[in-house]
Amino acid sequence: MSGKKFTTSSFIEAKKKNEKISMLTAYDYSTAKLLDEAGVDSLLVGDSLGMVVLGYENTLQVTVEDIVHHCRAVARGVKRALVIADMPFLSYHVSVEESVRNAGRMIQEGNAHAVKLEGGEEVIDKVRAIVKAQIPVIGHLGLTPQSVNLFGGFKVQGKSEEQAKKMIQDALLLQEAGVFAIVLECVPEPLAKLITEKLDIPTIGIGAGKYCDGQVLVTQDMLGMFSDFKPKFVKQYAQLGEDMKIACKQYIEEMRDMKFPSKEHTFAMDGDVLSKLY
Ligand code: KIV
Predict the structure, then answer these.
(1) Residues enclosing ligand 1, CB less than 6 A?
(2) Could you tell me the pLDDT band of residue 251, with boundaries at 50, 70 and 90?
(3) 162 flagged as catalytic
(4) From the CA of 183, how far away is ligand 1's center (Å)?
(5) The whole model's pTM is what?
């Protein structure tokens, strides 16, 4: 990790040099700043925002406005990492024109460097048009959460020959359409390895095993802050949720016992001035 900005070209260079790419999600300024200072290569303003920040059941209710709003905050906190805005459900499905316009909003209003969208052949005309508009695109295959109702739940994808062949074809199509990387989510490790070997662009795995060119996790999952459920592929590197509760309980207790605020957290006043107020 160096202080040099991580760009879309850095993704391709990293793959050539066999260097792993790190990605985490971020939705606000202060977290983005911390993660950027820690040296993460890219920050995804994911539509997982809907679940881990807004408390929705899935990602389907997230809007372009939501992503733009949070992306602006993330972009303000970042010096080095590449900021990627997730295109939410229906923002790139209706027409090519609308898709380009929405992708453009992510860059122009959200200050993102790139956008991510889910799907392969079904959205390839939109991907081509967005790339043509000079907006870098990252693809997303496998368990694409915006298709949760079609899949009938959050299930591993690509286990059957038919599904696996389609995923390989979609990956090649996306590469040919000009995406600079592809996220592979909940894909069996051997299939993710095969796709990674077939592509010149990097794969970023989440629940797709260690052979991907990089990894992404939802930050709230990785830091132990999200307790609604824990997918099998998540490793918790900290228990910030528990730490937050401990800190919060201590604050409540000290405040009730009048140990907080103490002198060091309090502003004094000139005694003469005060005496004139009584
Ligand atoms: O929305 C998101 O956070 C994502 C990642 C899980 C890849 O799409």
Answers:
(1) 25, 44, 46-48, 86, 183, 185, 206, 216, 218
(2) very high
(3) no
(4) 9
(5) 0.96
